[in-house]
Amino acid sequence: MNVHALQLFQDGQLQIDEQYVTVVAVLLVVVGIVLAFFGRRVWKTVISIIGSIVLGILGFTIGETVAGTLGGLVLGTLAAVVGGALFVFLARIGIGFVAGFLAYLALTAVTGVPLIGLVAAFIAFIVAVVYIETAVGIVTAIVGGFLVGLAMYWIDMDMSLVVIAMLVVIVAGAAVQMSQLKKEQERK
Length: 188
Fold this sequence. Notes:
By secondary structure, the protein is mostly helical. Among the domains are: 42-114, no CATH class; 131-181. Helices cover 90% and strands 2% of the residues. A two-stranded antiparallel sheet has the order 1-2.
């Protein structure tokens, strides 16, 4: 297996068959569009699944080490249930960190002053935690747009088309999600 892994790297770069790059790019576009336009609807489910997988694997590993396979299955199952609930609870803080990180990257890149980026990151974190539903819509639209842009970049599209597609997906996805949020708030 290590020989195969070493063969994937040539001249310090990962060499992957073109057909696999295309498949991954298509998957990234689909996931990016779903996140951009429906991120508020799916984020708790996705976060719960991630938490279940992460803590389930950790619980199984610890349980198997201490009490064998049966102990691993029992502790892994319990940890998966707790992990799903815990990650949903901690997701609010995670969204705040993602919003802060995006603000830091953007303002540090524009101004070149990391201190301004840190101040913006702190403000973005607070605003995202307070206005979580809006923040989830905006952050998932941005992440979805970046995934679409990354996919287009991997299949060697022109950089101007990559940036335009990324911006269109971000703006359209955020607009759709914000209009859905406004309708939900008006119904309440």
